[in-house]
Specification:
alpha+beta, 5-stranded mixed beta sheet
């Protein structure tokens, strides 16, 4: 019974905090930098976890997609080094700064 009451209390606190949360002002997304690591491997830094872009014969493999909203900027960085399409996205783990822009790559891979 105590667990149920605790769970109910936590849910209520979460609901109240969402009601009173102030919307954040939109900011310009942080700039991304791309750095060549090897002949066909690039690292894209900024805005969350680092992203790897591995260029293969078939296309580009992206490892981690950063925070939400960074998909278009990631694609622009990839396009600055190759004309090949993104063919695969790999996520190292489920933290928001590694999977946040996966949605930008749906339909591409």
């Amino acid at each position: 019974m105590k667990r149920f009451a605790l769970l109910l209390g936590l849910l209520a606190a979460g609901a109240v905090s969402m009601i009173f949360a102030q919307p954040q002002a939109q900011q310009n997304p942080p700039a991304l930098e791309i750095e060549k690591v090897k002949e066909n491997l690039y690292m894209i830094t900024g805005a969350g976890g680092n992203t790897a872009a591995f260029i293969t014969d078939a296309g580009v493999v992206i490892v981690d997609t950063k925070v939400p909203g960074m998909g278009p900027a990631l694609l622009e960085k990839v396009k600055s080094v190759t004309t090949k399409p993104v063919t695969m996205v790999i996520n190292t783990h489920t933290h928001f700064d590694h999977v946040g822009s996966n949605i930008a790559f749906t339909g591409m891979v």
